[in-house]
Amino acid sequence: MEKYDVVVLGAGPAGYVAAIKAAQLGAKTAIIEKDFFGGTCLNIGCIPTKTLIHDADIVRSIRNASQRGIKVNKPDVDIKKILQNKNDVVASLSQGVNGLLVSNGVTIYDGIGTIQPDQRIEIKKNDEEDNERIIYEKVIIATGSANKVPSIEGIEERGIYTSTEILDAEEIPEHLLIIGGGAIGCEFATIYKAFGSKVTIVEAMPRLLPELEKQLSIIMTKSIKERGVEVKTNCSVKSIKKTGRYFEVIIDEDEKIPVDRVLYAIGRKPNLTGLEALDLEMENNFIKIDENFETSAKNVYAVGDVVGKKLLAHVAFAMGRLVAESIYGEKSDIDLDLVPNCIYTLPEIATVGLTEKKAKETYKEITVGKFPIFASGKAKTMNLEDGVIKIIAEKATEKIVGAHIIGPNATEIIGEITAYIKMNGTISDISNTIHAHPTISEGIMEAALDAKGDSIHLLKR
Ligand SMILES: Cc1cc2nc3c(=O)[nH]c(=O)nc-3n(C[C@H](O)[C@H](O)[C@H](O)COP(=O)(O)OP(=O)(O)OC[C@H]3O[C@@H](n4cnc5c(N)ncnc54)[C@H](O)[C@@H]3O)c2cc1C
Known about the structure:
The protein is an alpha/beta fold. Helix content is 31%, strand content 25%. The protein has twelve helices and 24 strands. The chain has helices at 13-24, 39-44, 46-64, 79-103, 183-195, 214-226, 313-328, 356-362, 377-381, 410-422, 427-431, 442-451; strands spanning 2-9, 29-33, 107-110, 112-116, 120-124, 132-141, 145-147, 160-161, 175-179, 198-202, 230-232, 237-243, 246-251, 255-259, 261-264, 268-270, 282-283, 286-287, 300-302, 341-343, 349-353, 366-372, 388-394, 400-406. Helix 1 (13-24) packs parallel to helix 7 and helix 3 (46-64) packs antiparallel against helix 4 (79-103). The longest helix is centred in the N-terminal third of the chain and has 25 residues, at 79-103. It is globular. Flavin-adenine dinucleotide (FAD) is lined by residues 9-15, 32-35, 39-41, 45-46, 49, 112-113, 142-145, 163, 184, 271, 273-274, 304-306, 311-314, 316.
């Protein structure tokens, strides 16, 4: 039986990074993957959704082109070709991950890994009767997460999609009802509205994207409604009935909405299959870990979505690096609390650090600077005016503690503020840094100036 220093279970962002880093630090490393390299992120999450969002952007630009004096025919969306392109993007990146693992000397096992007592793992391949077994010194669980199924009568009907199935749907729905107004629900609303579907979002909380600062959520809701998406907040789906090729979705107050497709995106649950023998201690239904990512079982570590901290690919990447370093090297100075959070809707949303409310609770006095996107020259050139850049700092030290952006390129420019926060930067550091003009990022400088009461490009208050 082959013996390894480290065996990683799952080749998503957390797992493949952990395996590469462990191998780079000298460990004899193996990785086991039951489906595809790159996990949820690359195959059924970040990458395919962002490919479709780019397509949606193109469609929208063509539709709006005539407003700028460019006459083009109505866009004709060939969904099969769109899906083929998406699959090509995914396949090429997934092969890339395979190549990275191989080039770093990681041994790859295809199949479902089941951890057994005595530091053994059994690997079951679909097409083979005999299971393979390997021995580990240390195991890193990176099995990720799966869609949570809401307890709604009729939810198991065929044609009701999760975020995974809708990615391969070869028909554009006439009317798509989305259960859940979080990041994934809003991103799919953006995609299918652009592709020509009627879209309704049903959200149980009082507003879309309820985890965000209220102002961002309000701007987003206004913008999505202006583009024709129907938003029903403070509402729950009670049941779904299939009638022919349509569904009758019954929401509170017994309102019935006839639609031809339903998507639910209400959260994620950890993938725990194959881990039963370990009898791991759990925390809020996810695997409990200590500061070195070790679980309640000795020599068993866990990282990524399966530990339920922040279910984001870049957090999984960081944890993957850190777990290998904490076992075999020196841990990098990565702050797992300083995480940018991006939503790829129109307008884009990106946040980092504390909300204004949390900052007020944490610091004696804070200062808040804002720059509305309508005042940005670059945004005007793009005819995009919805949004705001907001920076929050501790008043006494000027230390930046949070930023909240809704507007064009938000998901790109948040990196700048994240870097300032990581380096204990102040609003003066930002406001005294020359930003190129015209760019959206110069709005960060303007927001910092506003936080100091020194604004130039805003009307004097
Ligand atoms: C629709 C959608 C959009 C998203 N968009 C974004 C985004 O834009 N940005 C972002 O940061 N995050 C996004 N996410 C979240 C992101 O995909 C996850 O946070 C990330 O993939 C977690 O990485 P992971 O390695 O922990 O788990 P996963 O990516 O889930 O990988 C786990 C891997 O383990 C394998 N596995 C599980 N059990 C076993 C077993 N017993 N044996 C062998 N293999 C096993 C699985 O097949 C899988 O490949 C999105 C998620 C979804 C669903």
